[in-house]
Amino acid sequence: MFIGRSPPYHSGVKSPRSPLLLALLWLLAAAVVVPSLLLLRGPSTELYLAVTARTTELPGVELVAEVGVIALALLWLLAAWQARGAGLGAVATALVGGAGTVVAYATSEVAKTIVQQPRGCWDLIEIAHCPAAGDWSFPSNHTTIAFALATSVVLTALATGRPRDSLGTTTALRFRRARRLPPYRAMVAAPAALAIVTGAARLVQGVHFPHDVVAGATVGVCVVVALVLALRGPVAALLVALCRNEAVGRVLLAPGARVEADERALVRR
């Protein structure tokens, strides 16, 4: 039940002092780190040759990264679904993080066309599944997507586990306890582990140099964090407006979250 004209849903977002500044700092970090990794091409190639000499013949190695990305996408869907029970701030984090993954991938593709670094499997080693000429190496797209998804899942899990209202200590205590439960911890640890395995698999397979993988991880993490910092608040505010429509509210929020939103509206009155 909606109370008067008060907005029925609260975003749960506390405005940080300088979210845009923090977002720019994350993007600046990526802009500095990623090009700098090209300076490590020499030692990276040596490590690449040392690793692939022992791993390229491993059965099924080319499937590991594909499975890792799919698993991370499923984790993101699960995290987004769980966010519905924690308020629109958590939902906004999930949505912006998902969109940030797409932006990170596009950024990685642009970087590939600019740098045009050949893959090691074109001329240094021979493997069964080497990408065709023109599919450049730096940075690793699979790693970018994996770390972007992992970052989105972790940020969503953190937002979901954060107390979302000030109606008393019960809700805050419940969410503090929830952050200690295995399912919550798994939503932080599992995506990080999957992202690392996915990036390592691209090296083990022989399709990327180590610095490609590190660059992909940097792009994925920095782009998603920057976008969440910059857009989480505005997107949450937009969702608040959309949730004035009861049908939309039923999609974006779980029943328990809708009940507490109505209680907050009553308290504000």
TrEMBL record:
Places the protein is found: Cell membrane
Membrane-topology descriptor: Multi-pass membrane protein
UniProt cross-references to SUPFAM superfamilies, sorted A to Z: Acid phosphatase/Vanadium-dependent haloperoxidase (SSF48317)
Annotated ranges, domain Phosphatidic acid phosphatase type 2/haloperoxidase: 94-228
UniProt keywords, alphabetically: Cell membrane, Hydrolase, Membrane, Transmembrane, Transmembrane helix
InterPro entries in alphabetical order: PAP2/HPO, PAP2/HPO_sf
Top-level taxon in the UniProt lineage: Bacteria
Main location: membrane
Transmembrane segments: 20-40, 60-79, 86-106, 144-161, 182-201, 213-242
A single GO cellular-component term on record: plasma membrane
GO MF term list: hydrolase activity
Name of the protein described by the UniProt record: Phosphatase PAP2 family protein
Organism: Oerskovia turbata
